[in-house]
Design a protein that fits this description.
The structure holds 3 protein chains of 3 kinds. Chain A is an all-alpha fold. Chain A has a single domain (21-319), classed as ABC transporter involved in vitamin B12 uptake, BtuC (Orthogonal Bundle), CATH 1.10.3470. In chain A, 74% of the residues lie in helices and 1% in strands. Chain A is built from 15 helices and 2 strands. In chain A, strands 1-2 form a two-stranded antiparallel sheet. Chain B is mainly α. Chain B has 10 helices and 2 strands. Chain B has helices at residues 3-30, 37-55, 58-80, 88-110, 136-158, 160-177, 182-205, 214-229, 234-254, 259-273, and strands at 126-129, 132-135. A two-stranded antiparallel sheet of chain B has the order 1-2. In chain B, 62% of the residues are buried. By secondary structure, chain C is of the alpha/beta class. Chain C folds into 2 domains: 3-149 and 289-341, 3-Layer(aba) Sandwich (Rossmann fold), CATH 3.40.50.2300; 154-284 and 363-400, Response regulator (Rossmann fold), CATH 3.40.50.2300. Chain C has 15 helices and 14 strands. Chain C has helices at 2-20, 25-28, 44-60, 81-94, 106-119, 154-163, 177-192, 211-220, 231-243, 246-249, 261-264, 287-300, 306-324, 332-341, 397-402, and strands at 31-37, 64-65, 68-76, 99-102, 123-124, 142-143, 168-174, 196-203, 224-228, 252-255, 275-278, 354-355, 361-372, 378-389. The longest helix of chain C has 19 residues, at 2-20. Residues 1-26 of chain C have low confidence and may be disordered. The chains are: A mainly alpha, B mainly alpha, C alpha/beta. The interface between A and B is large, with 40 and 44 residues.
């Protein structure tokens, strides 16, 4: 496959050269800072930080499609939740080893994403949005009604987290390690020839088609891979909460993921963590002061869409004159 | 399936039609997927409930609901959506934010109790229809659905404004290029579509009752209707409403375990083959 | 905001109090109570009343229980178990609450129960009714003060239905555990007394349109219909039951939530005459109940619902236990043991209530009927009573718990 530089911004060529020394240092510093957080935070705040990581990964998986393939999915919360359900089910009902349950959860999410992908890749724009939303609704309906397996409305309780990770800090660190690995994988993915093709599709589907690319196939693979990453996040979430219910696969979760990706900045990938941190903080801090947090969240949506649609990272970039490489 | 159950499906379909026709008009012409449509429905219902309780008149309640929701639509379109025109995703999420805001506002104003819009005395009770007793009010809902359909059909096919809307659905730029102020047509459509949501809330609020999260439920049904019917098609939304309304009833009677699947399963199957819905056309 | 002002005043009062307080430092600090209620989402009105119930009690005792000032930390569980879990963590780990109380929906309560199992925080559930929390899956620090188990009140209702001479009953219920359990209670007792459960309908929560079910119910020509509904579903079922003409032909028995004030206070004559079974009967002529209802109405201009009542009584129960242990809420084990030994005296029920040996309260259960009050409002009036009903009805607890929990597939139905 050839590399087609059809993207809107110039990028360093794919391959090992992408990871320059300076980038590596910055990345290492950020990870080290994140790893040091439990030393300064209370256990509750460590819990929130864990949640930020988990939802950051979900938002990144959405960003792969939204930012790099121009397809915004409102079904990723459901894919995420399928993994959560499977992990909880396997560890509680089947008594499987946590690692096996984790792997099965990710596999299930990837399969679900493949099915979603098959049905959704032909649509684009608003239709893609609606279709993924509808697919997510089906998952939600199944989880709600198939109560012999899913526990219905009440959901399922579990001891999904292995005993060695019972400690809040240990668990945070293991999620952090997982996050670093999948973040690196996603970063490589969007810079790979495959990722560049996705950008080509985002910018002009017809051009890519005329260049001989199999557009639906690329989107299908993109969707499936993105679902894999959402599945990893969902599996961590199962271990974080030791509980799952239909609200985990509900539309609200998908919407939250998309909002985090947008607040962070669509197409920035790592901005997702900033978006996740902003939303999780908003929900927790605001709700401590007023019962009207939903109203404030709604206002925040509107304000972000009107004033900072490029997200926090994008806004910062726009304000700071960009250095040339 | 008995005639009685068919009537149940049809009356529910009639309500869905009133709500979803407003949704599809806005979606078709302005390309806006208005996820606050459900919240407008709920707000309309609450306003209708308050007005009917105060004035005792169902008609004034209906008008009040339509006017109030058109006014909210005005603020939404002119105050907020104008800043994000042309960007699908931003529009969708903005309307979602508005929905969250309106829901919570409704909770503040009316509390969370379930309310039912009082219906006029003439619509109380049941009548004998083809061998079965059926509530008068639900027959009225069916009638209201038919009236809205005929009214919309006449508007779209017999008036200049309707012609502009239809042309706009197909290609707004051409219409604009031919010297028409398409913005005004857009605004009218948005207000009118919103008012239909308000009317739907009023009608639905009298037999499905009003409570927090009723908006999300009706929105889900409307989305299914529009996805099945196709963007901006009046016939599409009518067929979609009938399908969803009847499928919902069939599902509840025959496959209670699969209640949601019965609606969304066919929808997804359909979309896999006709991504634009039954009556949708390429924009 | 009301709550912030409240917090400030409590904190100030506490600071003033601690200066002059005599006993050990641990006892001078305020007791921190984390209250979780759904203040947004589908059951928001119930959540609001839960907070009202807590506030009413604290006002009456001048914000002091077990000899110590109280600091309330209120959190909205959003009617969503994921949110409830997050808020529980916040209350326990960040706000350092001594105990948690509240939650309305079973899924939120079960999620929080699973969490406090690990932390050991006392968690009081006056509203969460899942049977197994006081039967097959007890968690020691999860205590049902002033609450009830789901099938506790429908067992006697099944018995009452037999006494009315009903032979054939159909049920319609929300399809989740709370519904399965309430339906199962009635179905088991009714069929063991040679009644027949003709058919059972299970519908998803928030069913917009009941007409398909009502059509089928009408065709069955049964002696009575039992419906288990909560919230907006209850409103709709009662309304549509009347508009489809079933009200005139078939008596409607319901689980208590359906004719709770939270549902019927916005309704008209369509709710009149519905039968339910409950411990709380707001139209009772017991002077203590009447006093509570009058106080509640005076303060919040509405007749109290199950939610306000339960939280009020739950706080009273905790207070009584704390008085016994001298306010030592920090010593969790003795505190929890004491709560389970404590009897609730002076609650709006007008009768002393105590726990059975499984931690579930034993109540006098009333068969109650919705009637119109002279001022035109509807409320429940008692028509018959079953004294001292436990969650096990007349069964032996050990034998009873050997049968599976009620579910959609197990309703305890005895085939004729």
């Amino acid at each position: 496959m050839t590399i087609n530089v059809l993207t809107s911004e110039p990028l360093p060529p794919a391959g090992t050269g992408g990871l320059s020394g300076r980038t590596l240092v910055i990345a290492a510093l950020i990870v080290a800072a994140a790893a040091a957080l439990p030393l300064v935070l209370s256990s509750y705040q460590v819990g929130l930080a864990t949640e930020v990581l988990i939802f950051g990964v979900l938002a990144m998986s959405i960003d792969i499609l939204a930012g790099f393939a121009g397809r915004t999915s409102l079904g990723h919360g459901a894919i995420f939740g399928i993994s959560t359900y499977v992990v909880v089910y396997c560890s509680t009902q089947l008594g499987l080893h946590p690692a096996v349950a984790f792997a099965l959860g990710v596999v299930a999410a990837t399969l679900a994403a493949a099915i979603f992908g098959l049905l959704a890749v032909r649509a684009s724009g608003v239709y893609f949005l609606l279709l993924t939303l509808a697919l997510g609704m089906i998952v939600w309906g199944v989880c709600l009604r198939w109560s012999q397996v899913t526990g219905g409305e009440n959901g399922m309780r579990a001891e999904a987290r292995p005993a060695i990770l019972a400690n809040q800090n240990t668990f945070y660190w293991s999620v952090l390690i997982g996050t670093v690995i999948v973040s690196f994988a996603m970063w490589r993915l969007v810079r790979s020839p495959f990722g560049l093709t996705l950008r080509g599709i985002r910018d002009s589907e017809s051009r890519m088609r005329s260049l001989g690319y199999n557009v639906p196939l690329h989107l299908f693979i993109g969707f499936t891979v993105s679902g894999f990453f959402a599945g990893v996040a969902g599996a961590f979430y199962a271990m974080f909460n030791n509980f799952v219910s239909p609200s985990t696969v509900a539309l609200a979760n998908s919407v939250e993921g998309v909002l985090m990706a947008i607040v962070g900045g669509v197409g920035t990938l790592f901005g997702s963590f900033i978006g996740a941190a902003a939303i999780v903080t908003l929900q927790n801090v605001v709700s401590g002061y007023t019962e009207r947090w939903q109203m404030i969240l709604g206002l925040a949506f509107v304000v972000v869409m009107i004033f900072a649609p490029e997200g926090i990272i994008g806004k910062l970039r726009a304000m700071v004159p960009r250095k040339t490489r | 399936m008995s005639f009685f159950q068919l009537l149940n499906g049809l009356t529910f379909a009639a309500l869905l039609f009133v709500v979803a026709s407003g949704f599809t008009l806005i979606f078709g012409l302005l390309r806006i997927v208005n996820l606050s449509h459900g919240a407008l429905y709920l707000f309309g219902g609450y306003v209708g409930f308050t007005v009917v309780s105060k004035t005792g008149s169902f008609v004034i309640g209906g008008l009040g609901a339509m006017l109030a929701i058109a006014a909210i639509g005005m603020v939404l379109d002119q105050g907020l959506l104008r800043f994000v025109r042309g960007n699908d995703l931003r529009q969708v999420l903005l309307t979602l934010g508005v929905a969250l805001f309106l829901d919570d506002l409704a909770l503040v104003i009316w509390g969370g109790d379930s309310f039912t819009v009082p219906i006029p005395a003439v619509l109380h009770g049941s009548v004998h229809v083809l061998g079965t007793y059926y509530p008068r009010y639900r027959l009225f809902v069916l009638l209201a659905g038919v009236i809205v359909f005929v009214g919309l059909w006449l508007l779209l096919n017999r008036t200049r404004l309707g012609a502009l809307i239809r042309a706009g659905v197909d290609d707004a730029e051409i219409v604009e290029a031919s010297g028409v102020n398409i913005r005004r047509v857009f605004l009218f459509t948005f207000l009118f579509g919103s008012a239909l949501a308000g009317l739907g809330g009023m009608i639905g609020g009298a037999f499905l009752s009003l409570y927090p999260s009723a908006d999300a439920e009706i929105l889900t049904f409307s989305l299914a209707v529009v996805i099945i019917g196709g963007r901006g098609s009046l016939v599409g939304v009518a067929v979609g409403s009938l399908l969803v309304g009847v499928l919902n009833t069939v599902g509840q009677v025959m496959f209670p375990e699969l209640a949601y699947f019965v609606i969304f399963g066919p929808m997804v199957a359909l979309l896999a083959f006709r991504p634009l819905g039954l009556f949708g056309r390429v924009a | 905001m009301d709550r912030r002002r409240f917090l400030k005043t409590t904190a100030a009062a506490a600071a003033a109090g601690s200066a002059t307080w005599r006993s050990a430092p641990a006892q001078t600090a305020t007791i921190k109570i984390g209250v979780m209620a759904p203040l947004t989402g589908v059951v928001a009105s119930g959540g609001k009343e839960m907070i009202e119930g807590v506030r009413l009690y604290l006002d009456q005792v001048r914000n002091e229980i077990g000899g110590r000032k109280v600091e309330l930390v209120v959190e909205d569980d959003g009617s969503n178990p994921d949110v409830a879990l997050q808020k529980a963590r916040r209350l326990v780990e960040q706000a350092n609450c001594h105990m948690l109380i509240g939650n309305l929906l079973a899924n939120t309560g079960l999620a929080v129960a699973n969490y406090v199992k690990a932390t050991g925080t006392p968690y009081f559930i006056p509203i969460i009714a899942a049977d197994d929390l006081t039967q097959r899956a007890r968690i020691k620090n999860v205590i049902r003060v002033a609450g009830y188990s789901a099938s506790e009140f429908t067992h006697p209702l099944g018995d009452w239905a037999l006494k009315q001479g009903y032979k054939r009953i159909a049920t319609i219920s929300q399809d989740y555990t709370f519904g399965h359990e309430q339906c199962g209670g009635l179905a088991q007792v009714f069929t063991e007394g040679h009644g027949e459960i003709v058919q059972q309908f299970w519908h998803p929560l928030n069913t917009a349109d009941f007409s398909p079910y009502l059509g089928q119910l009408a065709d069955l020509k049964v002696d009575a219909i039992f419906a288990m509904e909560t919230g907006a579903d209850a409103t709709r079922l009662i309304q549509q039951y009347a508009s489809f003409g079933l009200k005139a032909t078939t008596p409607l028995l319901m689980a208590m939530n359906a004719t709770d004030q939270s549902v019927i206070r916005t309704m008209g004559d369509e709710c009149e005459g519905i039968i339910a079974s409950a411990h709380l009967v707001e139209g009772s002529d017991n002077p203590i109940t009447m006093k509570f209802v009058a106080e509640y109405e005076a303060k919040y201009s509405k007749i109290p619902s199950l939610y306000g009542f339960s939280m009020y009584s739950g706080m009273m129960w905790i207070d009584a236990a704390l008085k016994t242990v001298g306010g030592k809420v920090e010593d969790r084990e003795p505190f929890i043991d004491t709560v389970l030994q404590t009897e609730l005296d002076g609650s709006p029920l007008g009768k002393v209530v105590k726990f059975d040996s499984y931690g579930n309260p034993i109540y006098d259960v009333y068969i109650r009927k919705v009637v119109k009050r002279p001022d035109g409002k509807y409320w429940n009036a008692p028509i018959e009573s079953y004294p001292n009903v436990s969650q096990f009805w007349k069964y032996d607890p050990e034998t009873y718990m050997k049968q599976p929990p009620y579910s959609r597939s197990f309703q305890g139905i005895k085939k004729v």
